[in-house]
Every structure is written in structure tokens, then in C-alpha cells.
Amino acid sequence: MSAPAFGAGTLSRASAFVYTLVVVELLVLLTAAPGLVVLLLLDRDASNVPLYALCAVPLGPAVSAAVYALHRRSSDLADLHPAAVFWRGYRLNAVGVLKVWLPTLGFLAVLATSVVHRSVSGVPVWWSVLLLIIGAAVVLWSVNAIVIASLFVFRTVDIARLAAYFLGHRPGVALGSAGLLLTAGALTVFTSEAVALLPASVLIGGLLLVARPMRAEIEQRFVA
């Protein structure tokens, strides 16, 4: 019997997976650092909502590059280059993702400002609840859009349409994304933004997993 190839065993594949997660995590922290550093210096005050949005700008391309790298990860220990794949994804997708991410942040900043200053602006409670529901839908839409923009080459308008389409067509994807976002949000609220980013590569890996039905349908129906 011939000996198994190097890197083909279960332990080797697990080691390759963990190594990829660690490298991607460090690169996410590195690329998100400009906003994260400023964010850590800000007080948790409603008046800082626009600044929170500005600090989140680098996070979009960072998450996109991580999605790209984890999707294309190798299980072969002899062919592991997660950093190179991450930077390739960053170069390829940063501009396209920002076309989706920047309008999303701007809209959410305006919406959040209206909600937190409700007593000053005289906005009724029911309207604030409606705005929160709209905000949640926009966040889930943006998650779909970032995954699509990271893995496929479409026009921005087509990315926006597909992201909206799959919100209703694949509700399981939205529910899975919501669960991951709630986990990240709970970590942020009860610890800090820095702690919430520590398991970023694991959460993004989970995002890829829950988005698998959406990715499979796009490949089948919309990619020639």
C-alpha cells in the first residue's frame, strides 16, 4: 500500500484550517485597524453615531477580503497561502464593495441618528420601531451584497438587486446572518469592539456556511 500524500490526513487538514483562520483574523484586524483604533477612543455616546459610521468604512473591504480568502482556502498544508489570497481579494473587491458599503453606512447613520434623538426631533415611538426594522433589513441586505460582491463579478446595481432578491427568496440565509450579527453585537455591547473582532474569521466562516444556498443558486442561475 502506498503511503498517504503529505497533508492529506485529518490532522493536517484541521491544522491547515486553523492556520488559515488565524492568518485571516490577523489580516482583518490589520486592515480594519484605522477605524478600530479611533473607535476605541470614542465614548459610547449617541452624538458619535456619524463617527461610528466613518470608523466602520475599512471594515467592509476587510470582511470582503476575508470572505474571498476563506472561500478559496486550501486544505493542503503544502499549498497554504492565505495571506496572498486575502490580499488578492482585497485588491479585487475593495472598490466594488465600497460602492455598496458606503451608501449602507450613510443610510444607517442617518437612521440611527433619527432614532437616538427621537425625543428631540419629536419622532413617535411607532416610527422609531419602523426605522429599526428597516435598519435591520438594510444590514441583512448589505451582508448578502458583500458576500456576492466578494465572490462574483456583477455590476453594482445587479449586486443590489440580487442581495434584495435573496432576502425573501432564501430567508434561511438571512436568519443565519442575523444570528451571527447578533452574536457579534452582543460581544460588542457586553465587552468592547476590539473583543468583538477577535473571532471575526470564525464569524465570517460561519457567514460563508449559511450563505451556501445563495452562492449555489447564483452559480447555477446567474453565472454563465
Mean pLDDT rating: 88
Give the low-pLDDT segments: 1-6
Number of helices: 11
Estimated helix fraction: over 70%
In whole angstroms, the N-to-C terminal distance is 43 Å
* Biggest sheet character: none
Q: In terms of structural class, how would the helical and strand content be classed?
A: mainly alpha
Reading the helices and strands in chain order gives: HHHHHHHHHHH
Q: How many structural domains does the protein architecture include? A: 1
Structure report:
It is a single chain. The model is unreliable at 1-6 (pLDDT under 50). The chain is globular. It is an all-alpha fold. It contains 11 helices and no strands. It has one domain.
In short:
The chain has 224 residues and is an all-alpha fold. It has one domain (10-221).
Layout of helices and strands, plus pairs?
Blueprint: H1 10-41, H2 49-55, H3 59-71, H4 82-116, H5 118-121, H6 125-151, H7 156-169, H8 171-190, H9 193-197, H10 200-210, H11 212-221
Helix pairs in contact: 1-2, 1-3, 1-10, 2-4, 3-4, 3-6, 3-10, 4-6, 6-7, 8-10
